[in-house]
Amino acid sequence: GENVEQHPSTLSVQEGDSAVIKCTYSDSASNYFPWYKQELGKGPQLIIDIRSNVGEKKDQRIAVTLNKTAKHFSLHITETQPEDSAVYFCADGGTRGGATNKLIFGTGTLLAVQP
Amino acid sequence: GAVVSQHPSRVICKSGTSVKIECRSLDFQATTMFWYRQFPKQSLMLMATSNEGSKATYEQGVEKDKFLINHASLTLSTLTVTSAHPEDSSFYICSARGSGISYNEQFFGPGTRLTVL
Questions:
Q1: How much of chain A exceeds pLDDT 90, in percent?
Q2: At A96, which helix (H) or strand (E)?
Q3: CA distance A13 to chain B (A)
Q4: Read out DSSP for A50-81?
Q5: Tens of pLDDT, residues B17-37
Q6: Would you state the pLDDT for residue B100?
Q7: Helix (H, G, I), strand (E, B) or coil at A84
Q8: For residue A84, which phi and psi values (nearest 5 degrees)?
Q9: What is the distance between the alpha carbons of residues A35 and A31, in angstroms, rounded to a whole number?
Q10: Alpha-carbon distance values, A41 to A69, A80, B41, B65, B91 (Å)
Q11: Residue numbers of chain A with a pLDDT score lower than 50
């Protein structure tokens, strides 16, 4: 079945540095890829997503890149701040208008931003 | 926009009792809602998918008679954990997908921490 690999599982950076989290998916038909941030004891929050008609999307300090040929996508956080510390999940969101509504989640990355 | 609430945020119950968790989409109509459970330091595990007005679709290994799901309206879905046992203790999270959305955009609630004594 479909699966999503996510690396690294933990990431520690100094405040102000950049952080990159990578995911690889298996279903070549998928065309929607969201990223979620989950703080301790809270539900996941959608922070950015990308659709397969573009290779990159940026929102202030956060960007996501997509390589459909290689079937991987990455989250880039620049100028990290302590409040960026959380667990980040990538997901394979399937196909537009597809029969399944499932999100296939990665295993998560615990990001720690050291002040 | 796209706010999803859950109630209660945490609940402690005795073994053998039933617990109901509500999930509401506050500012949009959700034709599809999802229920997940999450164990400490793990990813989200989809339990079931519910569409308004129809029976829920459960993932393999999830007991439908134990985890009762009702999606009675376009803004409310409920999960009832029946005859709860300590192994049911977990973080339960719902998400909602709006009507007319072509991509699989889901918005999550804040979660419910269930502790079964």
A1: 80
A2: none
A3: 20
A4: EETT-SEEEETTEEEEEETTTTEEEEEE-S--
A5: 999 999 999 988 888 999 999
A6: 66
A7: helix
A8: -80, -10
A9: 14
A10: 36, 22, 11, 28, 8
A11: none
